[in-house]
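Example 3.2
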Amino acid sequence: MCGITGAYSFKGSINPDCIKRMTDSLRHRGPDDEGFLAVDSTSGKVVSLTGIDSKTYGPRIEEFNRSANLFLGHRRLSVIDLSPLGHQPMSNEDGTLWIVHNGEVYNFIEIRNKLESFGHHFKSRTDTEVILHAYEEWGTDCLKYFNGMWAFAILDLKRKRMFCSRDRAGVKPFYYLYDGKRFCFASEIKALLQIDDFCAEANERIIADYLLSGLLDHTHETFFKNNHQLRPGEYLIAESNGLTIKSYWDIEIKEIHYPRKEDYAERFYELLADSIRLRLRTDVPIGTCLSGGLDSSSIVCLANKLMFEGNHIDHRWVGERQKTFSSCFEDTIYDERRFIESVIQHTKAEKNYVFPSADAFFEEMPQLLWHQEEPFGSTSIYAQWNVMRLAKERGVTVLLDGQGGDELLAGYLPSFYALFKQTIRQVAIASLIKEVKGFLKHQDWRIDQFIPRVMAALVPDVFKPLFQHSNPYGFRWVKERFKKKYHRNFSKPNRFENELNNYLYHIFKSAVLPGLLHYEDRNSMAYSIETRLPFLDYRLVEFVFGLPMEFKIREGVTKTILRKAMEGVLPEEVRNRMDKMGFVTPEADWFKTKLRDPIREIFNSKSFSERGIFNIAHVHKTFQDHCNGKVDNHSMIWRCVNLELWLRTFIDKNPSSPDWKNSGN
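Structure, written as tokens:
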């Protein structure tokens, strides 16, 4: 895992100090090595440069004084092949291709074997070199061979272009600026903020999407105006005459049918196990996140079998027992130790617990926000932040995590409403009754939410607004003129005939997962940790979307295929649990107690009242009603607080604010 940067001027030169500042800002992503490349497109001269942390010798970037219109920068977190042979920017044999790469292509060994049979030669054991040769062999079609997470840029000197790509699910980020005169990119937005004449302006359309709809990372835009990101499954080609962006992968509409019901669970097990096997490839210590939920527990149990029953990993990187890392609370409402301990006893793994607190959260908020770079959905990411720090303290560099399981396997409550709608469309009344009865039996539901949503699924579209769940607080905490100007509705996908698959596709591609992956990347990289997500193996994703509905939800039970596949693998109390929590924080309670005064101070501040965004009186009333227990408004409260702190940090640059950039880890 690494940090990548680049700056390509089509009509002038680039100041080498600019690329150095950009790359320095990403040191936390790659503390083990750094490197640079300077290119003069006119003369064709290419110069490799080093920095203070470089593990190779060569001229220093601080001393470079030639003309160059293109620079690449790289910060390395050494995970595969720790030798200097993994140094980047990396070139092919004749120096016509150069790459900076962040991520892992897990099946690089298999691809390398294929390329060697075609006559390619390799000098390192890295996946980065495999990407270079794959591009050399197959061009942009190389992407279809990769199984992993990545964001990379390849400089193709022969074709005079840059080829950039982001992985299928969007696990790794790729941000860029383009104004017709230059193209700049980086792993994080903070690197682009180092560009001399880039002015950080708030993107009010994205702010409105966040405040009014809770959306994050759902388009090419970011919270910064004129700053963009590649979407999952896209590649970009930058040439002097412009940018070309194309999608190279999407979830196909392809139903899967097997002769026996047992075949579905067996195939799912094979795919998940093989995904974990590939993600155990490492040359550094590895561990696992364990929340106590079905997804992370399945990974811990399967990984344990693969770690200690076969030659899937060098035991130097595991130790005598698998290391697990969990976030816990003394309040039993939010504590998962009952289920965590069950998994620990089952696997004999080593447990490592951390206990996040409200006081520590607010103290660390400046540092957390600086790493996240954009507003986030809730304080729950602080639990994961603590888990990453704990893993770093225990000497672990790679972590397996269960992110993506809920989005793939219908783990969220609205999945049921999509299922009800589908059964109605099919006029399957008996099935609808069975599913509703199962839902009422197994799920935690509230009648004030359940009935309007079911009615909305039952009635024709023209009458649906009459049955939508009405929030008495509505959008009144946002000024009417702001709402009228920027509020927009995004159409739901209609890619599949199956309503449940359409809902899952929506949360997988835009509504939920992209934001979660943003948190995952920033939290882990803040502590120089690489997280790997077995549920997002594209083979598993394509398989699950092709399954009949009954293997996702059946009679009120979610994730049915995972539960079936984990028979005999998971402890039964974990396999059969119907509730879900994950890494969370007691956010609603924190706002009433420990964080009450800091939040009130923010809402009373001059900057908050002068934004032109918030209906101040209604914000105060909403917060007071929440603190008095009249209604739970913690989600709205947090969006207001988080947006205000983000604006102060990245847009206002208020000199009285803490120097969050230099707060360290």
